Protein 1
Amino acid sequence: MFFEPTTTFQVWWIKSIRVRPHASHRWNHCRQNVVCVVVLIWHSSQHRSLKRNVQSSFMADGPRWEGKATAKVLSLSAEAAWSFLEDFCNFHKWFPAIDTCRRIEGVDGRPGLVRYCAATLPPPSEGVVKWCHERLLAMDPIGRSLSYEVLENNIGIKRYTSTMRVTAINGGDGVSGCQIEWSFLGDPVEGLTREEWVAYLDSGLQGTVRNMEDQAHFTTL
């Protein structure tokens, strides 16, 4: 997510060839060959493990976290659940761990939209506000998914991207229930283990589902 795969492989293969400075007149020919080899390897099933290993070695300038939390929503259709999540700048209405969520810049539903999320910590850290800016990277209403990245913050997050996706269950008709998946890829969060971070997301997602179901039930009364 953070680097272009093609660039990564070009650099790896160019280093492997070890073109000498005085052979610069052959550089263009070597580079074309390198790109061809990369394309073939990228699409070859027998070299997928090599692709992953090389990509990881160049992406990782330190340990990288990856994981997800999931929750089933049996009382809402996939479309109904998505209608809550696609409201990018009102996430505080459903996610129990934050108090505030508002638009900073951009157009609703469009990539580039930036939201401000914040929460006031309970005692003994009463009065301390934890906040972050998050930028929408992609919004897919048909596939019912959105991706965003964390920007400035005071909660110990560096590079971090996340995707929320809603899929139908119970026959796939989208009416009889759905599942929400919240996945992430990023640098370690300061002061937490990966397991603690996943537990935080999982707890927050379960609370989000309960709030969505309560709101849907209230609007049908």
Note: The chain is about 35% helix and 30% strand.
Protein 2
Amino acid sequence: MNISTIEMRDASKERAPPYVQEKPPSYDSFYGKIKHARDTSDGKIDFLKEAMKIAGASVGFIVCLGLALAIPIACIVIGVRYLDDCPLERFIPIYLVVSGSATILPMLLKICMSCITMFSSDQDESDSWFACSAYTVVMLLGCFLLSWYIAGNVWVYSNYDDLSTNSTSENYCHPTAYYFSFWLFTSAYILAGCSCVVSCICWCFSLCQ
């Protein structure tokens, strides 16, 4: 073997890029946390619970929750604006104001809890106390909102046939206030129905596997 061949081999070795071993996904990332939960969960139900906790502490969830604040804010604005413009059922604009105000607080608490979970690696005693207090407030407001939601359904749907857009009529209610309330309830039922259908389909696929 001559000297030129040896020199060419040495040069090719020097030009070869070093081997870099690929690192596994970090558990600090969203994908890593989901993968870790899937590997350590005791079943599909347990994995679903852990995945919901991880998603609830993600940046995307906080952003979506912040955008969703537009709905209760719109309820408050429309309810205050047309508070005296619904003799058909005076509780319809009141419903909008109360439900919007009672919905904003638990949403803000959920954003705060998600931020604490996301930015604090080790929760101290004060964080645990805040989370327990926040969950208690959310549960109490949830019970109130459920009862208030049922009452709102009665006020809106029971007066649908009697609605008049004539401002001089006793059955008058401003169209913006009434139809906003009507479609608020109707959209909630549509979304609930779609969620049930998707959940049933996913459940059937999981049983077939």
Note: The CA atoms of residues 181 and 208 lie 41 Å apart.
Protein 3
Amino acid sequence: MIVFTTNPVRSFCLNRRLCGLPPIETFADLAGYMTNTTVANYAQLYSSVDDIDLWSAGVSERPLSGSLLGPTFSCIIGLQMQRLRQGDRFWYELPGQPSSFTPRQLEAIRRVQLSRLLCDNTDNIETLQMYPFVLQDPRINPRVSCRSGVIPRLDLSAWQEPPPTPLLPQVVPVPSNRPKSISSVRHQAYFYAFGL
């Protein structure tokens, strides 16, 4: 069964152009981004570089320094994450919403590490490396005690509300244009005393 989509996936070369990466116009231009064997295989399979499949070429690119992805997939995923963040009205850093965090609260949230979250919410964990998704290394990423002060805790004082201001009864003066006599003062006192 053949399935047709209304939004076809763009080619590898077009995605590179949309990302602002150097254009690929010939198979020789691929040499800096893929192994020579991969480039030779593409030259045999495709008549033009514009026909190269995005997925195949994306996973064939050499990874960027410190990444598992090459420049094309890094760009695509980065743009997608940026759009998800900007389009999510509940994103925690979005200002101006009724539920938005204050700058002080955001600062407190940014100081917390995943290791603290795991220590506080996982049963039977005594020690954990500072960066849990990175392999443990005694010098670079050592295991530390969850009870030690090494892993920063969330500063909840940023959520503390100021004490309420006590409500004092207010006396509202009644304006009068005529001078007050003793009898008028007694008369007003009588009405105030009995709530009339």
Note: The mean pLDDT is 85.
